[in-house]
Amino acid sequence: MGLNIVVLYGSVRTERLGIRAARFFVEQIRKAGHGSVLVDPMEHKLPLLDKRYKDYAPGKAPKVMEKLSGILAKADAFVIVSGEYNNSIPPALKNLIDHFYPEYAFKPSALVTYSAGPFGGVRNLSNLRAIMGEVGTASIPPHFPIPKVQEAFDADGKAADPSSLERAAKFLGVLFWYAQALKEAKKKGLPPE
Predict the structure, then answer these.
(1) What class, spelled out in words, does domain 4-186 have in CATH?
(2) What is the average pLDDT score of the chain?
């Protein structure tokens, strides 16, 4: 049975181009024989953070949080697709991440950064690694920068450069390895809190 990989995308801009990269990764994960769900804040409209999902009494959280908690809890790993906004991550992505905590714990994440310029969003990488580590999902060592995202994929997420497929397969292969290893380790129990 395959893994369940959730792709988190973080932009709500009307002219957003990173959604193409998110669609590309969902497709590559599925082609590798695993399940994948795209979590897009344009579809799952969370309020600005007031209370985390875990801070609500059972059955009292907003429906969007209930739904997202279920999606995130079932994940074996995450692919985070983030643009670079002022050397950091988009506010919608930070809001999405911050609403949840136990759903991320002891699962790996793979970080995909992008920009319209030549550096592929790498200036937000250290922020993103720190945030994901803080919520309990350590990021795998490699990351996947995408420079000139507007040229890298079409609207459906098809890669303009065929070498992106090989690069993505290697990158995702590392994530799949970590996800499987942690899934097996969790069967023996979690470390003490």
Answers:
(1) alpha beta
(2) 95
